[in-house]
């Protein structure tokens, strides 16, 4: 009986990267896993009585059992799935560049805080407030999958390749992170998707420098609560309430009865000084990382489009935490800065020509 020739048409009406058998990267909103991407494969669209855009996926390096014989399967929303991120064959990484670092079987978003010798770097992870050391073969430039395209795009004049998933990560697994000597990590341990923070998994290079604050000092505070990730709100230190913990009063958020400004307790890792003002005489450019003032707070995003409008320039800003785009005036934006180990760091624009 002759074999049936493939038609070349997709198995479903879904985008190419969501077809059964397609290699993908998977994100998670679970505590301890935000800001990371793990490789896997699409198994099928998840059955549902209600309209839903979810898929059954199988992880490449996460397993259900301690022996590592049964790959973990989960049902994931389509917004948390994307093709494998592209990666240059050769790239010279620089201080303050936003990168993805391969760690604990996944890619974690961070920023280069120091260039070392022999192609090694310190990378700071904003969410866990940790800093680790990586080789350049364990890094890739951070990119976002926006409207079925990569931002920033891979430069065509460089010899580029798509991340190969399993092959690339097997190579990296043989070159685990070294943090001031031998990394305390048990490779024979279960690869099950543990609901723990990156900070608890070992390999800590150095603790973040804890900033001390005084009563009455002006600060910005952030929260890990859903819906507030990536936002900073201005306020004032009321008093210290414990070791590296403070009571802060917001400038603009009020109590439920609207009788006073809201006060909350924060640990020092969720507080920072107010960033210095950087005057932007010229317009922002596409791919600039910015903070946008919205709902009484500053929300980190990326300029996705420059709009030529008068009398004031406007921009479309993409927020990766919510995968939304919104329009802002020039006066509603500021250059994004990170407070890392007692210093302000301004991420460089990715692939700036």
Tags for this entry?
353 residues, mainly beta, eleven-stranded antiparallel sheet, ten-stranded antiparallel sheet, 1 helix, 43% strand, globular, disordered C terminus, Agenet domain-containing protein, Agenet_dom_plant, Agenet-like_dom
Radius of gyration: 22 Å
How much beta, percentage-wise? 35-45%
Low-confidence stretches: 1-9, 156-206, 349-353
Count all strands and give the number: 27
Task: Determine the mean pLDDT.
Answer: 79
User: Describe the biggest sheet?
Assistant: 11 strands, antiparallel
N to C succession of SSEs: EEEEEEEEEEEEEEHEEEEEEEEEEEEE
Supply the number of helical segments: 1
Could you give the distance between the termini? 58 Å
- Specify the helix fraction band: under 10%
SS class: mainly beta
Principal-axes shape call? globular
Protein name: Agenet domain-containing protein
Pfam families: Agenet
Organism: Hibiscus sabdariffa (roselle)
Biased composition (Polar residues): 20-30
Structural description of this entry:
Residues 20-30 have a biased composition (Polar residues). It comes from Hibiscus sabdariffa (roselle). Residues 1-32 are annotated as: Disordered. With 353 residues, this protein is an all-beta fold. It contains 1 helix and 27 strands. Strands 1, 2, 3, 4, 5, 7, 8, 9, 10, 11 and 15 form an 11-stranded antiparallel beta sheet that branches. Strands 16, 17, 18, 19, 20, 21, 22, 23, 24 and 25 form a 10-stranded antiparallel beta sheet that branches. A two-stranded antiparallel sheet has the order 6-14. It starts with 22 loop residues before the first strand and ends in an 8-residue tail after the last strand.
């Amino acid at each position: 009986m002759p074999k049936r020739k493939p038609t070349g048409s997709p198995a479903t009406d879904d985008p190419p990267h969501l077809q059964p058998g397609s290699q993908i990267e998977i994100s998670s909103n679970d505590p301890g896993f935000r800001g990371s991407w793990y490789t896997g494969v699409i198994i099928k669209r998840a059955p549902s009585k209600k309209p839903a855009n979810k898929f059954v996926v199988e992880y490449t390096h996460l397993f259900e059992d301690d022996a590592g014989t049964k790959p973990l399967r989960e049902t994931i929303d389509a917004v948390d799935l994307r093709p494998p991120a592209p990666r240059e064959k050769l790239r010279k990484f620089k201080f303050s560049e936003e990168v993805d670092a391969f760690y604990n079987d996944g890619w974690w978003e961070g920023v280069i805080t120091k260039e070392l010798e022999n192609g090694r770097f310190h990378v700071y992870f904003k969410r866990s407030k940790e800093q680790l050391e990586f080789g350049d073969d364990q890094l890739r430039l951070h990119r976002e999958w926006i409207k079925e395209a990569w931002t920033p795009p891979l430069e065509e004049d460089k010899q580029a390749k798509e991340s190969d998933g399993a092959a690339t990560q097997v190579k990296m697994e043989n070159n685990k992170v070294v943090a001031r000597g031998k990394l305390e990590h048990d490779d024979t341990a279960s690869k099950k998707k543990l609901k723990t923070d990156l900070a608890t998994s070992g390999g800590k290079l150095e603790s973040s420098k804890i900033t001390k604050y005084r009563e009455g000092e002006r600060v910005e505070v952030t929260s890990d609560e859903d819906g507030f990730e990536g936002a900073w709100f201005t306020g004032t230190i009321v008093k210290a309430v414990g070791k590296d913990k403070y009571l802060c009063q917001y400038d603009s958020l009020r109590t439920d009865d609207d009788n006073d400004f809201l006060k909350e307790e924060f640990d020092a890792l969720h507080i920072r000084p107010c960033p210095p003002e950087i005057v932007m005489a010229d317009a922002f450019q596409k791919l600039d990382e910015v903070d946008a003032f919205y709902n009484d707070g500053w929300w980190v995003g990326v300029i996705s489009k420059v709009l030529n409008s008068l009398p004031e320039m406007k921009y479309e800003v993409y927020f990766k935490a919510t995968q939304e785009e919104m329009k802002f005036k020039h006066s509603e934006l500021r250059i994004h800065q990170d407070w890392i180990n007692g210093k302000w760091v301004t991420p460089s624009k990715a692939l700036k020509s």
